[in-house]
Structure formats: C-alpha cells, structure tokens
Design a protein that fits this description.
The structure is a single chain. By secondary structure, the chain is of the alpha+beta class. The two termini are 52 Å apart. The protein has eight helices and eleven strands. The protein has a three-stranded antiparallel beta sheet. A three-stranded antiparallel beta sheet has the order 4-3-8. A three-stranded antiparallel beta sheet has the order 5-6-7, with no helix packed on it. Helix content is 39%, strand content 18%.
Length: 291
C-alpha cells in the first residue's frame, strides 16, 4: 500500500464494490428473499467495511474468510469478516482461527478470481517499491552521482575525507541550491546524467501493470498509453469497460460463493444490487420550470 499504483487500484475496487448491498433472490421471478445478515452485521464493523476488507483480502491474498453464527435451524443470522492475520489453511484443508480448527458450518471461505497480488505480482511490487525509492532519492539528489577525486599525492586524513563528503551531501540536498567547496587537490567528477523521464515512464507503466493484474483499465489508473492517432476513448467508454469486464471479475466469485447451499437455502442466490450502476437518470427534454 506504500506504492501509489497499488493504493489507487485498491481505492477503485473497494470504493466501487463495497457500496452495493447484497440481496438474496428467490426463484425465477427474482423475488427478494429476507436475510437480514446480508445488509447488517450487528456489530462495530459496518456492512460496508465488511465488504471493503473482503475485497482487500481477495486483492492481496486470494482468499477471504467470514465467520458466521446460525440459529437452531442452521440458518445464518450473523456474518463478519475474519481478519486475514488471524486465520490460515492447513495443508489438509483445515481452516484454523487463532490456531483453533474452525467448526463445520462456522465459516465461509471466499476464493478470489486469482491467486492474489502478493503472489502473482510479487516481482512487479518489488520493482515498484524500488522505483519509489529511486525517485525519492533523485528528488533528494537530483544531480548525477559525484566522485570527489584527489588530484595530488597529498594524503587526506579520514576525518577530512568524511567531513568533505558530508559537506557535499548536505549541499546537494539543500533547498537553496547545490554549491560546495573543494580543496585545491580535490576534483569533483560527475558520473552519469539525470534522466527524470525514465522514472516518470517507469511509474506510469507500473500503474498499467498493476491495473493489468487486477483487471482495471489503464485510463482508470490515471496511466497514459501510447496509442495511434485514430484511437481515442471517452469517459462513457471507460465506464462501460469497467462495468463489463472489471466488475464481473470481482463480483462473481463473491456472489457465487454466497449462493451455495451452505449459505442460503437451495434455490436462492445472492447478488449485489447494482441498480444504481446500470440505471441512468432520464435526460431532460425541456427547460426547467420554476414556480
């Protein structure tokens, strides 16, 4: 999350998905079934936060776990997300919470559509972390690497060398400029050249790569693509691409898992209520009339 591209991707998915309520549909007529736990948690964590951290688990780890309470008939009456650091899966498939095996029917294990960003994108994330450190270093010392080269055989004491190097380091990072002093027997030699465009392009492609892992269009990641002159995109096109490809990729694993018979009765299915997403307000056809 210290990598801006990753934080941006998480913001897009969490802010989009967590706001839509879960509903249970009964039969072919899509009659809404009553399951209060879908829209309520009866605890300190709201349904929005339950879903937000569920999405977070799926993004980074590839799994999320909910703990449930059931009534005497076995129907779920309460469901809350279990923090990722508190549970694990043994090689034999046993789920342990705080090192205690979970009772049958007490948890819902939700799989992600892929193995998790920390697993499949580890190389990209490591490169992104180094890229962030690189541009911070360049911002601190924007000019090329400097060698303080002795031009005579006059030896400098260790304390003198240390003081001279420190003086140059302080001067390079000074907000008022990069001016330093060298003795007559020391020459400052610059190595390499500052290439800020490389860092800019690198950070841009990092956004594209993180978006590719998570199925988010580059435009929504605020990344720029090299496109032909006849290729263009609109906000409406980006919105449609996100709704058609990105959202189903993340919504379906949750919907399908919560629709199994151990969660809701057979014949019912759980879906996100996306009415607000696909319902456009009517376009005004006449001037507004004021009373």
């Amino acid at each position: 999350m210290t990598i801006p591209a990753v934080a941006k991707a998480r913001q897009i998915l969490v802010s989009t998905i967590a706001k839509y309520p879960l509903v249970a549909l009964d039969g072919a007529d899509d009659v809404t079934a009553s399951h209060a736990w879908l829209q309520a948690t009866d605890g300190e964590v709201s349904p929005w936060h339950r879903m937000a951290w569920t999405i977070d688990d799926l993004i980074f780890f590839g799994w999320s776990l909910w703990g449930v309470e059931r009534d005497a008939n076995g129907e779920i009456v309460k469901a809350d997300r279990c923090p990722i650091e508190r549970w694990k899966i043994d090689p034999d498939g046993t789920i342990r919470i705080d090192d205690v095996a979970a009772e049958e029917g007490s948890v819902i294990l939700i799989p992600a559509p892929f193995e998790g960003l920390l697993a499949v994108g580890s190389r990209t994330l490591k490169g992104g972390a180094k890229l962030e450190a690189s541009w911070v270093g360049k911002a601190t010392n924007p000019i090329p690497a400097i060698e303080l080269h002795a031009t005579t055989d006059d030896p400098l004491e260790y304390d003198e060398v240390t003081a001279l190097v420190q003086a140059w380091a302080d001067a390079r990072s000074d907000v008022n400029g990069a001016i330093a002093f060298t003795p007559h027997n020391v020459q400052a030699i610059a190595h390499g050249s500052a290439e800020p465009s490389l860092l800019i392009e690198g950070r841009n492609f990092l956004r594209i790569d993180v978006g590719a892992f998570l199925g988010i269009p580059a435009a929504l990641m605020d990344a720029s693509l090299s496109t032909a002159s006849l290729t263009y995109s609109t906000q409406e096109g980006q919105r449609n691409e996100f709704a058609d490809f990105t959202l189903p990729y993340w919504l379906e694993p949750i919907q399908q898992r919560l629709s199994l018979d151990d969660v809701v009765p057979s014949g019912q299915r759980v879906r996100f209520d996306l009415t607000d997403l696909y319902t456009n307000p009517p376009t005004a056809t006449s001037p507004e009339v004021l009373d």
